[in-house]
Amino acid sequence: MAVFSIKSSFSGTEPITLTEAKDYLRVDFTDDDSYITDLITMAREMVEKETNTSLVQNTFIEYFNTFPSGDITLQFAGNVVPTTGLAITYTNTAGGTTTLTLTTDFLYTKGQGLIKISAVDGWPSDVEDQANSVKITYILNPEAGIDSATYLPKPLKQAMYLLMGHYYDNRSAVTFGNPKELPLGYKRIINNYKNTIWS
Asked: pTM score, two decimals?
């Protein structure tokens, strides 16, 4: 597993529009449009993080201190953008940067959503002994390889709505009363869509 990972950027449109979000929240004024727009992005990012699944086109970067003895399983599921969607570089013992080549140095396959990277003839041994020596950058489209608004399963869209509703109605870290999660609420949806293993 990566010792450090970031999501550097996303492109395309959000799976839920501002109009859809306002309809769900029963908001008919414009004062909160900016806040609701942020809630849409926040909800998507939380669902992506908890399901390990890219819902829009995202660029991810994972860092490793060295190459493992076997295969590498990436943290997020989706379709790798062809040709330019997967790059591996590492700091070599001479202090320079070496770039590995797809098909010549490594291959990737998809299992149960997640992506596995395998070395063709073993991983390089001339890796500098320092933190984050190995860098893997990958760009993922949603699973179906189409626009996220078309692909997004309705349960995951509902999970986003549940998050937006919660944060729109509760704008502080403290709630009062004795709130309970619905039996078919957010966590149950997430558990049904979570990509956690490669098989």
From this structure: 0.82
